[in-house]
Write a structure and sequence with these properties.
The protein has 127 residues and is α+β, with helices and mostly antiparallel strands. It has helices spanning 41-54, 100-114; strands spanning 14-17, 23-26, 28-35, 57-61, 69-74, 80-86, 89-94, 118-125.
Length: 127
C-alpha cells in the first residue's frame, strides 16, 4: 500500500509557445495511482469524479479527446495539475507551478474515497 508517497517533483515541465501562440510543454512528470486490484475505467472515473466533486476542486474536462483528462485546481492550496485515466490508473500530470502538497492532498482524498490499496509511481521525461 502506498500510504505516504512523497510526490517529490524531480523535474518540472517547461511551457513553450510556438509562433502561432500555441502552448505545449517540454518534459513531463506524472504520477500513476494504480489500485491494487484492477478496476474498470468506469470505476476509476467514478473515483476521480467523486474526489473532485467532494473536494475543494475546480475542474473541467478537455473535449474531443479519446480519454478522460481534467484540468484541476485545488482551491485551498492553489495547485493546478491535470488528471487523466489511462491503462488502469489515475494519472496526475505535473504542471510548472504544481507543488507536491497538492498532489499528496489529492491522493489522501482518493484513498479515503475509494478505500482501495494503491501503488504510486513517478514517471519523468526530460525536456
Amino acid at each position: 500500500m502506498a500510504s505516504d508517497p512523497a510526490f517529490e517533483i524531480e523535474s518540472r515541465p517547461q511551457r513553450e509557445y510556438d509562433r502561432a501562440g500555441r502552448l505545449s510543454y517540454e518534459g513531463t512528470t506524472l504520477f500513476r495511482l494504480e489500485p491494487a486490484e484492477q478496476r474498470p475505467e468506469a470505476t476509476l472515473r467514478a473515483y476521480l469524479d467523486g474526489v473532485l466533486d467532494d473536494g475543494p476542486y475546480q475542474y473541467g474536462d478537455f473535449h474531443d479527446l479519446p480519454m478522460v483528462v481534467y484540468l484541476v485546481r485545488d482551491r485551498e492550496t492553489g495547485d493546478v495539475f491535470r488528471a487523466s485515466i489511462r491503462d488502469g490508473a489515475i494519472r496526475l500530470h505535473v504542471l510548472p507551478e504544481t507543488e507536491a502538497a497538492g498532489l499528496r492532498r489529492f491522493f489522501g482524498r482518493l484513498q479515503a474515497y475509494a478505500e482501495d490499496e494503491w501503488t504510486v509511481d513517478n514517471r519523468t521525461t526530460a525536456g
